[in-house]
Amino acid sequence: MKIFRSIKKQQQYSFKEKCKGRVIGFVPTMGFLHKGHLSLIDKAKELSNRVIVSIFVNPLQFAPNEDYREYPRDEKRDLKLLEEKGVDTVLIPELNEMYPNGFETYVEVSKLSKDYCGRSRPLFFRGVATIVLKLFNTVQPDLAVFGEKDYQQYIIIKRMSRDLNLPIFVIPSPIVREEDGLAMSSRNLYLTPSERKEAPVLYESMRRVKELASKGERNVKNLKKEMVKFIESKKYPRIDYIEFVDPENLKRAKILQGPTRILLAVWIGKARLIDNMEV
Ligand code: PAF
Question: Is the domain covering 186-278 a CATH 3.90.1150.210 domain?
Answer without folding.
Answer: no
